[in-house]
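Morning F.,

Quick status update on the modeling queue. The single chain you submitted on Monday has been processed. Sequence for confirmation:
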Amino acid sequence: MSEVPVAEEMTMEELLKESAPQVRSGGLVTAYVVDVSATGVVVDVGLKVEAVIPLAEFRSLPQPPVVGDTFPVLVKRASGPEGPVVSFKEARDRSQWTHLIKARDAGATLEGTVLRSVKGGLIVDVGMEAFLPASQVDRRPVKDLSVWLGKKVSVMVIELDTHKGNVVVSRRKLLDHDAALKRDATLKTLEVGKNLKGTVTSLTAFGAFVDIGGVEGLLRITDVSWGWVGKLSDVLKSGDVIDVKVLKFDRATGKIGLGRKQLLPKPWDTVDEKCPVGSIQKGKVSSLTDFGAFVEVVPGIEGLVHQSEFSWKDRGVKPKEVVKLGDEVYVYILSVSKSEEKMALSIKRAGENPWVETARQLRPGTRVTGVITNMLPVGAFLRLPSGMEGMIRVQDLSWTKTFAHPKEVLTVGQEVEAVVLEVNPTAEKMSLGIKQLTEDPYAAFTVGAVVEAKVARLTDNGVFLELAPDIEGYVHISEIGGESRLDHPSQAVNVGDLVTAQVVKNDRKKRRIDLSISKYQRKEEKRLLKQYKATTDGVSLGEVMGWGQQQKENTEPTPPLDSVEETTASPVVDSEPPVQEPPPASGSPA
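C-alpha cells below.
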C-alpha cells in the first residue's frame, strides 16, 4: 500500500489542483461578475482563482456588466502563472457561428448596430462583430463614415472565415436587390411627362441624383429652379423628398432626365407686370461673361447688362472688373421679350445721364480741348476733362487733305483742340472736328466768281488749276477753247500758264470745283460789248475791245474842251493814213 502524503506536506498549488473542478481549455462555462474595475470585469468561472476580462470585450453591449451578472465565457487557458484566461467575446462569437452560416447560405438579412469606424470600413454588431467595408455601406461612395456610428443597419453575410473568426457583411447588396425589384416595377410605368416623388441621393456640381423608385434620374441644376442657383447645396440636400417631372426617358440606355422647376409657376408668364420696360429694379448678379453680366431681377427672371451699358464714359468696360457674383445692383429695364425669355438691362441708365448735361453745355461750335484715347480707321476718340468722349472723323481732320487713317496726323495721348459739331444724348455720341477750327477755304470759290490761276497739270479731258495751296479746280476740255473744238488741252494751254476762269460749280461735300475758261471769255466779251453800246463820246468798239490801243498811243493828245471847234476845224496831217475803225454797232449813235 502506497503512502499518501499528509495535507501539511502538500503545496498550495497542489491543493488547488486537487480541489479544482475539471475545466478544460476551449470549453464554455458560465461566469459570475464579482467586481468591475476601470480596467476590466472580474468573474468567477468555478475555479479557485478568479479571471479578469478586459472591458473592451463588452463594448458591443449597450452598457457594461455589473456585479451579479452572469454570461457564458470561453476558457482559453484554465490555469497559469497569472491565473485562468477567459473571453466573453469569443464565447459570444462561437455561439453565433451556426446562425451566421445559415444566414449566409440563405442570403438572409441580419440586423446590426454600427459600433465603430476602422480603416477601410465599419464594425457592425450582428451577434458578433462583423466588418462592413466602406464600398458596401451604400450604393454610392460614402465620404464620411462617422455619420453611421450608432445607426441600426440591415446587412447580409458575404464572407465567413471560421479559422480566423472573420465575418464580412454588406448593406449595399441588400439595397441593390431592393432597388432592382423597385426598378423593374418603376420602369414598367415610367413615361415622359409623369409626375413623381423622389428622394435626393447625392449632389454634384452639375445636378442631383434622385431615386424615383429603385431607379435614379438626373435633376440638372438648370432644372431645379426658375431662378439662378449658384450652389446646389443651398437648395437641396441628400435625403430630401421632392416632386419631380420626367423630362426625358431612354429605355435603351436607361437614362432618365428629371425636372423640378417645371412643376412650379413660371415667372416669365408675369414678367410684364413684374418688370415693366423703363422701370428701375434692384437685382443680383447671377453670372459674368466677357461681354456682360446677367442680373436676376426677380426670382426666375434675369436679364443681360451688356458691357456697353455699364458706364456712360468708359466704352471698353470689363464686367468682371466692375461687379462680382452676388453683387446687388440697380438696373434700368431696356426691353423685354416674353416669348424668347430675354431681357436687356442697363446699369448706367439707372442713374443720371451725363449726355444730357453735356448736350446742354457743349453747343455746336464750342471749342474744346482733350486727349486722344483711341484711333480707328474712321476716326479718333477724344476724351474731354469731364470724362466724356467724342469722335473726330477722319474727314473732319482737314479741309483740303484726305487721310486714310487718323494716325497720319494724330497720336494716342496727344492733346488737341477741336470744335463740337453735335452732341446726341439719345445715341450717346459726340461729333468733333479739327478742320472746323478754321474757315473752309472752298467757301471762297462761289459760283460765278472769277479766278486767276496757274495750270497745274493736264489730262486728256481737261486741265487742273491751282487755285490755292492744296486746292485745285478742274476745267473740262470743252470749257477751254470756246467755239474751237480741241483734241487735247495742250492745244490751248500749257503747265505753268496763268489763265483766268469762272467758277461754274462748287461741290463742297465732294471737295470739287469746276471752272470754265470759255464762259469767262464769253462773259467778258458781253461786258465789253455792253460798255461799248453805253458810250456817247464816240468811243469805237475797237477801242473798247482794245483793238485801237496801238493807234491811240501814236495820236496826239486830245485838246481841251474850249478849243474843240478850232481843233476840229483844222485838219490834222498824219505821217500815216488813219486806221479804219470798226463800224458802230446797229442802234448806236453816229
